[in-house]
Amino acid sequence: MAVNKIEIALKEALKKAMVKCNFVEDYEINQITIEIPKEKSHGDYSTNIAMQLTRLLRKNPRMIAEQLIEAIDKEEANIDSIEIAGPGFINMFMKKDALTSIIKEVLAEKDDYGKSDAGKGIKYNVEFVSANPTGDLHLGHAKGAAVGDSICRIMSAAGYDVTREYYINDAGNQIYNLALSLYARYREAFGLDFELPEDGYHGQDIKDIAVKIKEEVGIIDILVNNAGIIKRIPMCDMTADEFRQVIDVDLNAPFMYLKAVIPSNDQKRTRKDH
Fold this sequence. Notes:
By secondary structure, the chain is α+β, with helices and mostly antiparallel strands. The protein contains 9 helices and 6 strands.
């Protein structure tokens, strides 16, 4: 399990000093706060433990800090020097070896460095990007991909069971309106009357796609209908949604793509008439 071994060593040393000073009989090291000061002049690490103990000991925090400094085993904790700052902060300056020893661990453990079992296999589902299929990709999606993937990697390294999900929202009213919008623009590309749905998509991208379909597919001469499904379920057991799926594929779908083909054939007939 990857932990900050320097911080753990400092907490253990402070705990022993507290016991040695008869401040406590025992103390949870997780209750000891160790921070890295913003100012380098304030040490490599700092703690406010003296102020935390003030209420318990009913003493001035600087007096508590002085006693802790006297009692702490600097050699065991790899501390080079200690000083008191402000109302009772204890600032610790570490030996160079203590700060550079971590490099050897990183080189030895390689990709396994930093991994832990803190998550204990708890399952998480992380959804990210999930770009709306009715619109273009943009920089925000790229940012979401980087952030989402990073979160998943960090959580996996911390022992969580992470599932990555890209939700493809390609169903429902938005796709229906997209299809109707594209169909309207497709008719427009052939110079025919068209009507955009009230909740349709009016962007230039829909126009461009319609023109691209016209240019790449051209006029369709023959249409083969091979769509069809069957639900091998007794009618008394079939739900309305299941029956609706059969109708959508076997009847509504041919109706829709026949309507889509008609504009090109209308244009073809118009050319022949002229």
